[in-house]
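Query structure, 362 tokens:
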């Protein structure tokens, strides 16, 4: 029975030409338009490390700790063309970091290192440098003869093509919720919700079929954008492409369940469309779909508002993975997705019991 339900979902969706255009054409057109229009804006933060520097302050360093510092200096020169500068006043160095005169300041103790970065306006270049520091040196260096290997992260170029490929793809995947909400409302219009409740399938099976459709749509979008962006725009997705697809799959599941919730509660397709479109566009504006996210991060008040946008966290995660880093951004976003899926599922179950037949005029 579940297989029959899944087959019905896929046949119903893919026989619509408009749906095929949405999956295969619109995402890449959006990426092409935005990457061309905002090329210079993205390049200001992501394309170079112009005039980048990292300060260091010596606090009773040992010969071994200085050797680790020199290794880090070599990594910076090779991977990011960022220079190290010594400062004599640690507090003054921190102040300059907060004023964006350097990416961070390293304090070198007898047997450990500490890295200070601005808590207010750390740019993307600063995050890359900090990740290089953690990969090369770590948060603490053991005393004695224990060595530490130098790791250079091969970072694909994050230009406007790469930025809007990742952000634009995540943005269009959010519209999966629109399709799923309309599909659920159709079930209510034709009275199938009541039959599903009484059948062996149940509401869980219907949700699984809707989520499976959403995941299929999302993966088709991702594969299409991956192929076109790689061949046409020359975007290098990097070594963490598999993790990117995992993040995008989780996003498609969350969007599908959200769409099912809206479909259960909305009185008509017009209401459902309004709710989903407002949610998606708000997330897009705050998440960096229409302007480089670093500009939003440097605006007072807005830099707090953007954190409510799922697209913002998706972009942070995909950006880190594009740079070859599986860091807290990805773990945080995957946890956020899991939490949203659980929340939406509970709402879906509650609303499913109350769902009634929908009669739309026209």
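Result returned for the query:
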């Amino acid at each position: 029975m579940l297989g029959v339900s899944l087959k019905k979902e896929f046949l119903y969706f893919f026989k619509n030409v408009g749906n095929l255009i949405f999956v295969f054409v619109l995402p890449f057109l959006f990426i092409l338009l935005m990457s061309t229009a905002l090329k210079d804006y993205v390049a200001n933060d992501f394309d170079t490390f112009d005039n980048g520097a990292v300060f260091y302050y010596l606090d009773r360093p040992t010969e071994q700790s200085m050797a680790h510092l020199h290794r880090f200096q070599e990594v910076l020169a090779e991977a990011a063309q960022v220079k190290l500068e010594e400062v004599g006043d640690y507090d003054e160095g921190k102040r300059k970091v907060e004023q964006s005169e350097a990416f961070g300041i390293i304090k070198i103790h007898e047997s450990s290192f500490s890295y200070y970065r601005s808590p207010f306006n750390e740019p993307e270049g600063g995050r890359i440098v900090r990740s290089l520091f953690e990969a090369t040196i770590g948060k603490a260096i053991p005393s004695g003869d224990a060595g530490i290997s130098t790791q250079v992260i091969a970072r694909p170029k994050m230009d406007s093509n790469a930025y809007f490929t990742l952000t634009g793809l995540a943005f269009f995947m959010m519209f999966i919720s629109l399709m799923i909400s309309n599909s659920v409302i159709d079930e209510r219009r034709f009275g199938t919700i009541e039959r599903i409740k009484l059948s062996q399938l149940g509401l869980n099976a219907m949700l699984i079929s809707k989520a499976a459709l959403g995941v299929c749509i999302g993966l088709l979008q991702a594969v299409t954008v991956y192929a076109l962006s790689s061949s046409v725009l020359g975007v290098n997705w990097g070594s963490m492409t598999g993790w990117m697809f995992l993040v995008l799959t989780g996003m498609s599941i969350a969007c599908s369940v959200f769409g099912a919730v809206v479909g259960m509660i909305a009185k008509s397709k017009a209401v459902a469309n309004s709710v989903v479109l407002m949610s998606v566009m708000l997330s897009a504006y705050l998440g960096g779909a229409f302007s480089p996210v670093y500009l939003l991060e440097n605006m007072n008040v807005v830099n707090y508002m953007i954190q409510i946008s799922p697209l913002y966290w998706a972009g942070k995660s995909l950006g880190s993975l594009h740079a070859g880093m599986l860091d807290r951004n990805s773990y945080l976003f995957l946890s956020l997705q899991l939490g949203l899926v659980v929340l939406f599922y509970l709402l879906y179950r509650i609303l499913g019991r109350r769902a009634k037949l929908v009669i739309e005029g026209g």
